[in-house]
Amino acid sequence: MSRIRPDELDERLGTDDEPFLLDIRPESDYERDAIGASRNLPVYDDLRSGDDDALRRRLDEVPDDREVVTVCKLGIVAKRATRVLDEAGYEASTLAGGMSGWNGYERNSLGYRVRSLWWRLRG
Given the DSSP bridges, would you call strands 92-95 and 3-4 parallel, antiparallel or unpaired? Predict the structure, then answer.
């Protein structure tokens, strides 16, 4: 399963290679803090409980003409969304670390730098 680091995503935002950002978190979390170019489909709780069909029923809201990057709190449930998208024929990746990773990247926090090093070592 494919993943993308926050720094890699940031490099692609605003370019011809910009992916579609699918934020699956609950609407209240999305409204409080989101990546500017993202779109919210609040299926996080459904996916977390094992209901993959919640996302499948809404695939008509996800463009299939470019890569989709899934976003959640920590990147764990977004992996499930990425798998559903992969199975449906989408080119999909998970944002490594989710919004926590993104916010750490933006703040250049020590935690983010350590995680980023780990992600790079893992390949």
Answer: parallel
